[in-house]
Amino acid sequence: MKSTIVLAQLSPLSDIEENVKKAEAAVREACSGQQADMIVFPESFMIRIPEHSGIRSENDFAQRLDGLFVQAMRKLAEQYGIWMVFGMRERPDDSMLPQGDQEGTGRVFNTTVLLDSRGKIVSVYRKTHLYDAFGFRESDQYLAGDSLFTPVDTPFGKIAVFVCYELRFPEIARRMALEGAQIILVPAAWYQGPSKKEQFQMLARTRALENTVFLLACNQCGGGTTGGSLAADPMGRIMAEAGEGEQLLTIHVDTGQISEARRRLPCLEQRHPELYGCVFGDRAEN
């Protein structure tokens, strides 16, 4: 199956309504000329929190899935007839809070939403592996989700999603591939630091190659993030890569290439999970 997927590498603002306007402009451009099938926005695209905000004031910006931001994005998807992926701060219902957060610690979910071309919410993923690394503690602000994304059938292939820091966990991408994912989408807010941009590219290409899938990573730009959104094919080759600034990166995906890649490189079928002592989508016998 062939499709056109646009990675909207944008710099979110500290105003939700303005970010909806940025989204609309990006969708309009993506759908002009050759109709895009899907547009992917970065992690936490809903809002960039002003500097020096405390956790409570930061998470005051969070909304529920029936809030104004998601509803506005749903209208865009329906209006333009395009599938959409975007990140947000999701305010949890009390029933979603783990023991201990009932006290009102103010943490929210780092959530990614998948919409179809009618504006229907197809899937919601709450980031499970939080960025507690390089001196940063995402878990101070966010609650961790309790389940990985289940790959979704779409008109242009089976799609899976995970977020940013989760590129560093090969088990996640392997699980997705074993569950049939052909295209893995990675919304990100990958921050600058020594060799960080190179690591982003290296990890994205490696996750694509070792699973013989397409991997498309859409990063934020500005505000200390690196940009450099990219797409890697099932042999780990870079199909397209963005610079450091705002950019719409158009990717033409043909999932038919996966079978040829796996014929040449049959590493998935040559696995011996009974030797590994761990679970990668199918349970080892012990």
State the main characteristics.
globular, 286 residues, 17 strands, alpha/beta, six-stranded mixed beta sheet, seven-stranded mixed beta sheet, 27% strand, Nitrilase/N-carbamoyl-D-aminoacid amidohydrolase
- Termini separation: 39 Å
Biggest sheet record? 7 strands, mixed
CATH topology: Nitrilase/N-carbamoyl-D-aminoacid amidohydrolase
Helix % is 10-25%
| CATH homology superfamily | Carbon-nitrogen hydrolase
| Unreliable residue stretches | none
SSE series: EHEHHEEEEEEEEHEHEEEEEEH
Give the C-level CATH assignment: Alpha Beta
Overall number of domains:
1
What is the approximate shape? globular
Give the count of helical stretches: 6
Mean residue pLDDT? 92
Quaternary structure state of the chains depicted: single chain
Q: Give me the count of strands.
A: 17
Structural class: alpha/beta
SS strand fraction: 25-35%
Set out the fold topology.
Elements: E1 2-9, H1 16-31, E2 38-40, H2 55-59, H3 68-80, E3 83-90, E4 108-115, E5 121-126, E6 132-133, E7 136-137, E8 142-143, E9 152-154, E10 157-161, H4 170-178, E11 183-188, H5 196-211, E12 214-219, E13 221-222, E14 225-226, E15 230-232, E16 238-241, E17 247-254, H6 256-264
Parallel strand pairs: 1-2, 2-3, 4-8, 10-11, 11-12
Antiparallel strand pairs: 1-17, 3-4, 4-5, 6-7, 9-10, 12-15, 13-14, 15-16
Helix pairs in contact: 1-3, 4-5
